[in-house]
Structures are given as structure tokens and as C-alpha cells.
Amino acid sequence: MNEKNEENLKELLDRFGDEDQTRQSLEDFSVAEAIFERHPAPTPDKQLLTDIKANVARMLIEQKRAQFRRAIYRVVSVAAVFIIVSISAVIYFQPAGEPVPRVALMDSSEWESDNPSQADAGFTVLTAQMDQIEDELLAIELDESGDGAYGDMSLDLETEFIEIDGDFWKG
Amino acid sequence: MTKMDKLTEVVAGCKKGDSESFSQLVDMYSSRIYGYFFRLTGNRDLSDDLLSELFVKLVVKIRSFKGEKFDSWIFRVATNIFHDYLRKKQRQGKLIDAKINELIEEETAPKRSDNLMLDKLQSQLGSLDEETRELIMLRFYSQMSFKDIAAMRNEPIGTTLAKVHRGIKKLRIMMEQ
């Protein structure tokens, strides 16, 4: 039974009018009910109801997807905050350990010296060898010995090239 | 299982987002609410749209249902949708503030575009003012008690009763002519 029928209309009307008015009102309501029953409103098409149900089902799926995405974002956000807080806490509360020892790569006297060969024996040998090579190259270029050694060296080299070239073509 | 128990179960299913429960809700309420919209607008296409909109809104709004009388609740949502429609029309410039009643009369008047021959009741309903027509429709289609209708409209029950009585009396006279 619906609420309308559960309601005692006579009792309600009695509160606002006399007996005649109540009787007349009840008759009006009764006639109106009959009019509505004689003139039923059209009902919705089956296709409309099918469309509505399909639309609602689609919306529910979208709604669930959105809820899932929101849940994922929430979890990721909480995890990110947790990680940041954890790292911050570790850094903040880490006990101050032994200071890292500083080891010099070279002696300060070597760093400040203008003459590195004085400070490093290996460097002295290298420098000497480079000087020697430089001198020898200069001597060759100037043919200082005057014995035509430079020319002989060039001639020997050319002869050697010719021989190599000949052997190459002979196979 | 009583009808009330069934409704409680269906509403609980809807609140959980169950598609089958929503289908059952559509079957349970579509005829009455469609009749309500049709008697207010007199237009089948418009009633189709309003009914579709109602159930779409219910998908979201159902969570706000706190367990009061469901019929009252769903018809309140339907009434709000109808009022939103009127306001939208108004904003679109198809209505002016003081002439909402004229719109309703126009909407409820028979239209050639309607594929349905409107009945005498629909024509006579167009002669009533918007408020009275809405009250009578609520009474006959929502099956709500006067107490609930009055509560929904935030007015004394005597006022609601008097308005509906005046309306049906006028309707009765018109229908008997």
C-alpha cells in the first residue's frame, strides 16, 4: 500500500473544515482519482528504457574506472609522501660519523714549486730524454755533422722504398 | 519479500553501483515518472529527455539518499530536473521571467509534432497554473502523502491540501463540461 493510501484523508480534511466541506472535498478527490484512472498518461517506449539502462551501465563502468584511478593516485601520493618523509628522517636523524680523511695527491711543496723537475725524479728523466730527441732532430735538419749523413739517410730511405715497391708488384 | 523490502534491496544495490539494480529501478519507476513529466510538459520527446536525465543523475545522486522515503526522494529529484529544464529554457531566451506559466501552457498545449493525440485531461491541465498542476501531478503520480508533499515544499500541510483541492475542483468542473 502506498503512502497516499495509507494517509487518512478524511481525518486530515476534518482538521481544516466542517463535515460538509470534508464530504465535498472527499468527493472531489475521489472524482479526480477516477479522471486520472480514465486518462492514463502514455508510458515510455521500450527502446527508451533499453537506452537508459545501457547508458546507466556505461556510466557505472566509467564511475568505477574513475574510482579505481582515484584510489591509485591516492596510494601513489601516500607512498611518495612516505618515501620523502623516510628519506628526510634518515638524513635528519643520521648520527654524525667520523669525518672523511683528506689525503693530498701531492706534496704541497711540489704544488707550489715553479720547477717540477726538482720535485719529481721521473719528471727529470723524461725532460732530459725530450731534450735529447729535440737536439738530435735539430742536428739532422741542419746536417751539423757535415758528412752528408742526412743525405745518405734520405738516399737509403728512397732506395728502400723503391725495393719495397718492386717486391710488391712482383708478388 | 514485500514490495518495500524489494525496493530497499534494489536501492542498496544501486548505491553499490550494481547495474542490474539500476535496471530494476528503471523498471519500477519509469512509468510513473514518465507520466509525471508528460503531464507537466505534454511533450513525449521532452519527457523522454527528462526521464533519461533523471536516471543519469541518479547514478551520481543515489549516494546522497540517506534512507528516507524513496518515492519522495526520487520525485524530488524529478521535480528539480523539471525546474532545471524550465530555468535552462529561460536562460536560452525562450522564456521570460514573469511568463513561466505561459510556457507551461504552451508546452502542455497539443502540438502537431507530437505523434500522440493528446487527451482531454492534458488539454485541461494546461488551463491550470504551473504550481497547482505540479502539485496535482505530484499527488497522483508520486503517490506521496500530503504530509510529504508539504514537507518537500516547505509549506504547511493545510496550504498544500487547499491548493490541491482547489486545483482538482477546477479540473473536475472543466472535465465535466
Straight-line distance between termini of chain B: 46 Å
Low-confidence stretches of chain A: none
Helix content of chain B: over 70%
User: How many extended strands of chain A?
Assistant: 0
Task: Classify the beta-strand content of chain B into a percent band.
Answer: under 5%
Give the integer mean of the pLDDT values of chain B: 86
Gyration radius of chain A, in Å? 55 Å
Largest sheet of chain B: none
Tell me what the structure shows.
The complex is a heterodimer of chains A (171) and B (177). Chain A has 171 residues and is mostly helical. Chain A contains 8 helices and no strands. The longest helix of chain A is centred in the middle third of the chain and has 48 residues, at 46-93. Chain A starts with a helix and ends with a helix. The mean pLDDT of chain A is 79. With 177 residues, chain B is mainly α. In chain B, 74% of the residues lie in helices and 0% in strands. Chain B has 9 helices and no strands. In chain B, helix 2 packs antiparallel against helix 3 (44-61). The N and C termini of chain B lie far apart (46 Å). Mean pLDDT of chain B is 86; it is low at 112-117. The chains are: A mainly alpha (171), B mainly alpha (177). Chains A and B meet through helix 1, helix 2, helix 3 and helix 4 of A and helix 2, helix 3, helix 6, helix 7 and helix 8 of B.
Question: Secondary-structure map with pairings?
Answer:
The complex is a heterodimer of chains A (171) and B (177).
Chain A: H1 3-6, H2 9-14, H3 19-38, H4 46-93, H5 108-112, H6 116-119, H7 121-142, H8 149-170
Chain B: H1 3-15, H2 19-41, H3 44-61, H4 70-91, H5 100-108, H6 120-125, H7 130-142, H8 146-152, H9 157-176
Helix pairs in contact in B: 1-2, 2-3, 2-7, 3-4, 7-9, 8-9
From the structure above, extract its key features.
heterodimer, A: 171 residues, mainly alpha, 8 helices, 77% helix, 0% strand, elongated, B: 177 residues, 9 helices, 74% helix, globular
